[in-house]
Amino acid sequence: MSIVFKDVSKTYLHKGKEINALRLTNLTINAGEIFGLIGFSGAGKSTLLRLINLLEAPSSGTIHVGDDEVTALNQKDLRVKRQKIGMIFQQFNLIESKTVADNIAFVLRAAKYPKAEIDGRIDELLELVGLSEKKTVFPKNLSGGQKQRVGIARALANNPDVLLSDEATSALDPETTKTILNLLKRINKELGITIVVITHEMEVIKELAERVGVMSNGEIIEMDDVYKIFSEPSHEVTKGFVQDIYDFQIPPHIVQAEDNKIITIKFLQESAEESYLNKLYREFDLSISILNGRIEYINGIPLGILMLQVTGDPSEIDRLIRNITETPGIERAEIYE
Amino acid sequence: MNSLTNLGPLLYQAFLETTLMVSISIFFAVLIGLPLGVLLFVTQHHLLFKVKPLNQVLGALVNVIRSFPFIILIVAIMPFATWLVNASHGPVFASVALSIAAVPLFARLVESSFNSIHSGVIEASIAGGAPLYMIVTDVLIPEAKKGLIQAITLTIITIIAFSATAGVVGGGGIGDLAIRYGYYRYDTLTMAVTVILLIIIVQLVQLIGDFLSRREEGK
């Protein structure tokens, strides 16, 4: 189910001062995609997410989820609509006084799910998130990852069309994060649920999202395919978020000179796997040594970064630099040095 | 009165009166105070049932009643209490004033127990499309159960303390015995025995309350 923001903004008063939590925003999240929003805390991503299920009301504009304009629904219809918009949270937000099964039963009962089928539905959901043996356990006896699985089972209980993820892996260790992200990916694929993820970790975006919006100061400042954002970040904030994969230090003992240059190149898409380096060795009369390099796979597409030290005749070095610029799929990438 | 044998029956009678007053009052404190506490909480919560004017009126009402010194409250509501229980003295009569004093106290304690619930749980329930009544019965009350048990404990102990004043309207009870015999008649033995009895009762109530609330925590 698609999500469409039309001229949406959110301002609120804080100690007499007007705060622009979300500046005028137009946004379409496509049905079935995994859309990521990244930004530092206070960037407005959490506000944007909460506008989708109207946990916060917009100051202006309209929001559609599927065919429904959620901003126009009355209280009762909104409640029913929310049952079709699952949400998971950083702190899991389970009812501590209820068992795993009762936590899920709660939202099923809220949606007037047929009483006789509730138990079977709970088994089905726990099976999906791989937590069948924890049915009668209280949340305090679960690990963080297990709690989030319960959170996911609860969010999916009423067969939602949309799943909102509010920093769902930020409280988890890297290993658990990976398994939760894989679970979300599987849910998206198998159930066709549109997923909106907010996070401050680029790793989560890289692993999970197909498209990403970068938020800063209540605005989406850049929005594109995740690969595009990683390979060609244009805004400073975006560069900051993706810099980890470009983050090569020049070894301190290396001194650059006319006849001794450090060149970082970026291989896009298929070229990342081609033997471009071989060609350089063959066609240029230069001494080329590799200082650093890595290939990242983003949505399965490779993005390679290679830091080279080239020594030789300055005019030959210039020829090499020209060749880099002229070869499609290969670019200079000295943005972080 | 200078022997425990003489004191025995009086003490027993007073104990029954106190028990009666406390039972009636805590019953009404919970019966009316719990919904009132729920109302106080949900009417100020932006995700639940925010109605600021209602919240302010209820809040003011609660504060006004809680501001009354208990002895003045007893006297002030005498006509009402007489009409309600068709009597003008005795423990049941005193229970009217005790209940009126206990309801707002308990309501505030309920409200503050709810305030200590992690707000994310409420948010998650709203996001799950749960109706208000289900949030009250399935989230607020169970999640605050420990705090609610402590609130009941505290309210009972406060009622016991207030009930000493109930003597003014012939309410009787242990506290009244302590004042009438122990204090006014300089009867040290009665004074000591009644005070010790009160201490034991309060300790016992607190102990039971702590036990029950700890049991909740263990879950």
From TrEMBL, chain A:
Residues 3-242 form the ABC transporter domain. The keyword Cell membrane applies. GO terms for molecular function: ATP binding; ATP hydrolysis activity. Transmembrane segments: none annotated. The keyword Transcription does not apply. One of its GO terms (cellular component) is plasma membrane. Coiled coil: none annotated. GO terms for biological process: amino acid transport. Pfam families: ABC_tran, NIL. Keywords: Amino-acid transport, ATP-binding, Cell membrane, Membrane, Nucleotide-binding, Translocase, Transport. Belongs to the ABC transporter superfamily. This is D-methionine transport system ATP-binding protein. It comes from Lacicoccus qingdaonensis.
Automatic annotation (TrEMBL), chain B:
It comes from the Bacteria. The keyword Transmembrane applies. It is a multi-pass membrane protein. SUPFAM superfamilies: MetI-like (SSF161098). Pfam families: BPD_transp_1. Residues 15-208 form the ABC transmembrane type-1 domain. Belongs to the binding-protein-dependent transport system permease family. This is D-methionine transport system permease protein.
